[in-house]
Every structure is written in C-alpha cells, then in structure tokens.
Amino acid sequence: MPAIVVVIAVMAMFALGYRYYSRYLADRVYGLDPAYVTPAHRFADGVDFVPTNKHVLFGHHFTSIAGAAPIVGPAIAVFWGWGPALAWVVFGTIFAAGVHDFGALAVSVRHRARNIGTLAADVISKRARTLFLLIIFFLLTLVNAVFAVVIGNLLVAYPGAVIPIFVEIPLAIAIGQYIYRTRSAALVPSLIGVAALYFLIWVGNLYPIEITGLADALGFERTRDLWVIILFVYAFIASRLPVWLLLQPRDYINSHQLFIAIAVIFAGVLVGMDRIVAPMFNDVPAGSPSIFPFLFITVACGAISGFHSLVASGTTSKQLDKETDARYVGYAGAIGEGSLALGSIIAVTAGVAATRAEWEGLYASYAEASGGATRNFVNGIASFATNLGIEFQLATVFAAVVVISFAATTMDTGVRLQRYIVQEIAELVGWRRLSRHLTLAGLLAVAAPLTLALLPGGGDAGYTFGVLWRLFGTTNQLTAGLALAVIAVWVLRRRRNPVAVVVPLVFLLVMTTWALIVQLREFVAADEWVLAPLDAIIFVLALWLIVEAVLALRRASGQPAESAADSGPGPDSSGASESEPGDTSQQAVGAEPAAGAGAIDDRR
C-alpha cells in the first residue's frame, strides 16, 4: 500500500469531518451564537482573558495539546495491525475527540471560562469534583512516569540528543528573559531559538554524550534510571520557576518543531513514495493483550484525550474571541492531533522497515512493540528525512530531539499541575499546611511518578513501560469520560440531542472498565502488588464515574430546559491555591499556568 494514498485518504476524511460533522455539532448540539459575548471580552484583563484571533488561538491550542502521546500510542497500537490503529485514529478523532475537545471549550465559555473540575461540581455533583481530583492525580502520576521513561530510553539510545536537549534549557531562559523584559513578540526570538537548536543537533551528532559508565559506577542496573532521576530533579526545579522564564519560551521553540516534524513526514513520504510494509491486520502471538479493549486505550491521545479538556477549559476558553470560533479551535485542534497520530503510524509502518519480515522483527511481541515504539518512530522519521537529502544519523538525532522535546514539555507541565492537585486535595481534606507548602507539595508530586518510573522489570525496554502506558491510557480515558459526562448533561439540560456526546462517553467507559478488569486479573496472577492496587483504585473511580454520570443524566432529563445564558459565580472560581512568589500562574484544577497574554497551556 503506497503510504501517500493513505495520507491523502485520511486527510480527506478529516476535512469532511470538519466540514460537515463539526457544523452539525456547532448548530444542533452546542448551539453556538455569534452574538454571544465571550469571557475573553467580558473579563478582559490583558493577562488571562485576552480576545485572540482564531488562527493565532488555534496554533496556541494545538501546540498545547500536541505532546509525545499521539506519537507513542499509535506507534504501539500498530502491533495489532495498521488497519485497526488507523481506523480508531480516524473515527476516534472525528466522532470522539472532536466532540470532546469542541464541547469542553463550548461549555467552559458558557460558564465564564471555568475549568472542567469546577464544572463537574456544578453540572454533575459536588462529589464529581472529588472524583476529578483523584482521577487527575493518578493520570498525572502515570503521565509523568511514562514520559520520564520515554525520555530516558531515548537519551540512552540517541546520545547525540543530549547536548541539544539540555542546552535548550538555558537557550529558552535567555529567550524568555528577552521577551519578558522587552515586551516584544515571540515569533522572531523563537525562530532564532529553533535555528540555534538545529545547530546544536549538528553539534550533538558530532559529540554524543553517554553516561553508562557513570550509571555503572553509581550502581544503577539500567542507565535509563539515572536519566529518570536527573529528569525529575530538573522537573522539580522547573515546576518552581515562573512559567514565562522557561516553560513558555520552550513551548514557543517546540511549537515550530511540531509543524516541521509533520512537514518532514508528509514531504518525505511524497518524495520517496514509501510503501506500508506492515500488515493491515497482524496475527499477534498468543498471550498478547487483546485488541479489544486495549487498542482503544493504547492509542489514547491519538484519538481522544482527557488532557484536551484541561487545555480547552483551562485557558483556551479565556481567549476565545467569538463563540463560533470554538468550532475551528476545538474541533480542528483535535484533527491536528489526529494528523500527528497519522504521521506516527506512517513512520512506523512505512519508514522504519523495508520489508514485512523486517517489520515483524521489530513488532515480534507486545513488549517489543511498546519498548521500541519511540525508537521505531525516530528511525521512521529519519528514513523520510533521508528522502529529503538529510544524512540518516543526523536525521535520527533530529527526530529524537523532536520526541524528547514534546515529552519534556509534557513532563514540565505535568509535574507543575501535579503539585497544584496535591495542594488542592490537601485543601479539600483540611491539611492547610500542606496546601500552602510549595516545596513539600512539589516533592510529593515528584515522588509518586518517580517511584513508578523506577519499578524493576524487563530491562530498558521491558514490561514496565508497556504496563504503565496501558494504565495511563485507561486513566486518560476516564478523564475524557468525566468531561464528556459534563458536556452531555449540559447539552441535555438545554434540551438538545446528546447522542453525539453520549455514544463516545459510553464507548470510552466500556473499554476503560473492561481493560481495568483484565489488567487487574493479570497483576494479581503475576503478584504485582504495586500495580494491582493502583489498577483497583482506578477501577473504583471508573465505577464511581459511571454512577455519577447516570444519575446526572437522569436528573437532567427531568429538569426544565436551562437558559442558554452563561452561569456560575464569576471567572474560574475553583478554589485555587495560593500562588508562589514570582509565579503568576492560575492555580486552578485543570488550568495551566498563565503569565502574560501569550501563555502556553498544559500539555499531555
């Protein structure tokens, strides 16, 4: 199968989904009103509430939701065949992710741009806020753990990426200082930063840095574990810095990398006319995870992601100029994410191997598929880059830097948001000292994912990552389920047809609970007494979510129609924790730090 044929067909389907289905959602389900005064105008303050051109906001929102997850998930999911993986990416994007992302943005705008956690308390029940906090805590724990493992494995496999990745930190700080002090636009400095980063890629390729000897001297069985510890030390420090100093300028640089990477994939496929050599349906070995339900939690952010609701309701809703722009920003943003997942599938089925036998050697088992997902993506990107005249070794460093950069920004924001969640939970249970103690809350936010990332088992590419990725997928889908439940109840209260929301909600909850039950049995049988209790807790939260959603939908069906006007006690009154000195971030559950009109949202 020529890869370019698949690319064109999928992009055509995405275009049709946006043209027709998103129009249906806008007119018949969410009822967008071009005359509605959005929170960006009503509460305009030049900091968080800033009316923004829809094209600028689209780029801002898309960059915020595009981390490494839509790369890693699909790269693993082709283990069951590229046909099922691609089908879920396409239909999941059009009928689930688009509904979810668009809906979270629309509902937040109608509720004074408040985040999804606060809306869960208002729209479903006060218990739903507690449910939200617990789900997000486990989700962030797993996100931070799996992406630390992703980065650690890549730094071991591609030592040429070490110099550009770590020099990017002071480079971003310098750019952040320049933008902050001169109040200048970010475009030109960030482009200069990209140029400097690509020069560093060339330098890193010439002078790779390996720490295997140091890891052995310190007694580490896996070199990756030393990198994981270094990464969490960095993330703890970064989470204490004002967002304008490091996170935002890094995001500016990485936003350009995102579009460059997608361009390299599609241009390389077009020039090289590569063919998909992987099987459409793979005959997986006995004992492998079943395609049902695990395909639908493995792809995760490549089809639908609960993280997107945090971005949409966190700060994107505060910048929407017109309510009708939500269709373009929310739904088209989901399509952008699906396009990145498409690029990942093409890279690991057409770029990474020349023959089917060679491909099957890379995907001989689920453990090899999950452990080698990022490596396969990197090599696939490098193969496409060689079609454009770039030397293969240099291209692998470029691709590794792209993946690490996305994963690192996810981890940066994840640790920061995890600290907010720890403080919020402490406030909820009355531990006011912990809720105000930033250092202790930060240490707790780092300790949980660090422990999971260092779990023994299977070597550098062993079962630990594959298992953690599946747990991440289930928790991420629970978050999406919570957001869809809020959206469905809101739509039903307005006496609009909620079927477009309820169908993906039910599908997600069925697949999630099914996967949790199967995994729990596996963990108990294998005497995994760390992962089994974690799976059990997430399973209880899933059942809790189902009960809350059913009760809320029943109540909504018996209530009089709700006014289309917005509701709620003011902009984002979510009980945010106190801000740290010098950090102007919005410490609301699900809200990404914002420091100035150009603040970047949270990542997956």
Automatic annotation (TrEMBL):
Residues 560-604 are annotated as: Disordered. It is a multi-pass membrane protein. Residues 563-604 have a biased composition (Low complexity). The chain crosses the membrane at residues 6-21, 62-82, 88-109, 130-155, 161-180, 187-207, 227-247, 259-278, 290-311, 331-354, 392-411, 438-455, 467-492, 499-517, 529-553. Keywords: Cell membrane, Membrane, Transmembrane, Transmembrane helix. Residues 3-515 form the CstA N-terminal domain. PANTHER family: INNER MEMBRANE PEPTIDE TRANSPORTER (PTHR30252), PEPTIDE TRANSPORTER CSTA (PTHR30252:SF0). This is Carbon starvation protein A. It comes from Micromonospora andamanensis. The gene is cstA.
